[in-house]
Specification:
The protein has 200 residues and is α+β, with helices and mostly antiparallel strands. It has one domain: Aminopeptidase, CATH 3.40.630.30. It contains six helices and eight strands; from the N terminus they run E-E-H-H-H-E-E-E-H-E-H-E-E-H. It has helices at 25-33, 37-40, 52-64, 113-128, 143-151, 184-196, and strands at residues 10-11, 15-19, 68-75, 81-91, 96-104, 133-139, 155-165, 171-180. An eight-stranded mixed beta sheet has the order 1-2-3-4-5-6-8-7, with helices on both faces. A hairpin with a 4-residue loop joins strand 4 and strand 5. The protein is globular and about 40 Å long. Keywords: Acyltransferase, Transferase. This is Ribosomal N-acetyltransferase YdaF. GO terms for molecular function: acyltransferase activity, transferring groups other than amino-acyl groups. It comes from Acidipropionibacterium virtanenii.
Length: 200
């Protein structure tokens, strides 16, 4: 028995998070070429177009090992793939989990897609899975991600120094954040407001 259904689909007002599959390959290659994310954002876990198939296979292997639940993020109004996100570090005995390995095509950034995605993921974790803690982590050099996480209402837990090495060989720190169950109602209202601003 897995704690989280690997076939879980979450549907919001702007996006749908559906189980990642090999069938998403072409759409995600096109999405990552939007803004050259895999080349330009070297400090993120965004795969290059050439490594997309390998990245999907790796996430599906983690899903089969019950250590990750990966999603493709799909824009509802036109079915366009926007990127990938996951549940990982699954710890049902607390319960807690992390949300990560997230990337969004450049043209969809700032459109409410990420806010809707986080609303779905955190909401399901807190309200259906009974999580006491949801974690997010990013690299020290990823200033954009750190600011976005803090806007969500997550609090800084600490910095793990010299924690990970980027694909280009650069060593970086990991910045760890968390949101606790009693903090979710206020964070939920903020996310709902951000999503509502992009409905039209």
């Amino acid at each position: 028995m897995t704690w989280i259904d690997p076939d879980l689909t979450l549907t919001g007002r702007l996006v749908r998070l559906e189980p990642l599959s090999a069938g998403h390959l072409d759409g995600l290659v096109e999405a990552v070429r939007d803004g050259d994310l895999g080349e330009r954002l070297w400090w993120t876990s965004t795969p290059s177009p050439e490594r997309m198939a390998e990245d999907i296979a790796s996430k599906l292997a983690a899903r089969d090992a019950a250590t990750m639940v990966p999603f493709a993020c799909i824009r509802r109004r036109d079915g366009q793939p926007l990127g990938v996100t996951t549940y990982y570090d699954l710890t049902p005995d607390v319960p807690r989990l992390e949300i990560g390995y997230t990337w969004t095509r450049a043209s969809a950034q700032g459109t409410g897609a990420n806010a809707d995605s986080k609303l779905l993921l955190i909401g399901h974790a807190m309200e259906q899975l009974g999580c006491q803690r949801v974690g997010l982590r990013t690299k020290w050099t990823n200033q954009q991600s750190r600011a976005a996480i803090e806007r969500l209402g997550f609090r800084l837990d600490g910095v793990l120094r010299a924690y990970a090495r980027h694909a280009n060989g650069v060593l970086d720190d990991a910045v760890c954040y968390s949101l606790l169950a009693h903090e979710w109602p206020a964070a939920k209202l903020r996310l709902q407001d951000r999503v509502a601003r992009h409905l039209g």
